[in-house]
Amino acid sequence: MKIEIELFGASRDFSDKNSLKLEVNENSTIKDIKKKILDYLDKNFSGNENFKKIVNSSAFCSKNNNIISDNYKITKNEKIAIIPPIGGG
Amino acid sequence: MLHTKIINSKDNKLSISKAENFIASSEYGASIFFTGTVRIQNNNQIVTGITYDSHDEMVIKSFKEIYNETEHNLNIKDKAVFIEHAKGYLNIGEISIIIAVACKHRDEAYILSRYIIEEIKKRSPIWKKEHYNNNESAWLKGNPIIHEKN
Questions:
Q1: Does the first or last residue of chain A, that is N or C, have fewer Cβ atoms within 10 Å of its Cβ?
Q2: Which residues constitute the domain of residue A75?
Q3: In this complex, how many residue pairs, one in chain A and one in chain B, have their CB atoms less than 8 Å apart?
Q4: What does the pLDDT look like over B33-60, one tens digit per residue?
Q5: What CATH number does the domain containing A7 carry?
Q6: What is the domain class of B2-133 according to CATH?
Q7: Domain contains A88
């Protein structure tokens, strides 16, 4: 199934678009999605370690604007957001 | 009494006078105005500007949550709070955030203002990309967001 991950902050460097579109297995969890993104970075950025660190220190957010856990199951066509470490003000 | 907004720098600039008008419309006499502005120097580098990125919906949600919890956490019931944050490219000296608060008494106003900025730093999904005078730029590291709801 297809899912879309909106990019924010430092993760915007992962693509020249505002989101990543990934094909994942049904019943995939956030943990699985993280792996998929790391695979994508391996393929497209030769495993850029700084980018991988960003993924590993990021949270994810549901379409309802809640932070979701590693066990959260993604549904078909769901749009989630990656939330890298923050620092406004 | 709460006002929150993300201001896209392409459309508008943050304005203290707007915050003053909001606070003047409240019934409280002790007010604090906090602003954050873009600094020319950070980590020994000359900064020419900052691009702010924001997950707008989550940011506004976090502002509302922070405001709502001050009644319980700080025991401050009567208050007026104005929070605006910039998004997009800002030049040196431009305002990135305004937090204006008004309470019945000054002790409460100081506590409330400080609490709001510290919680925003911890919880509101906003990011900064600094631009330097050597034409390079870098996202600032930041802190992992707190996982509140699993």
A1: N
A2: 2-83
A3: 92
A4: 999 999 998 888 999 999 999 999 999 9
A5: 3.10.20.30
A6: alpha beta
A7: no
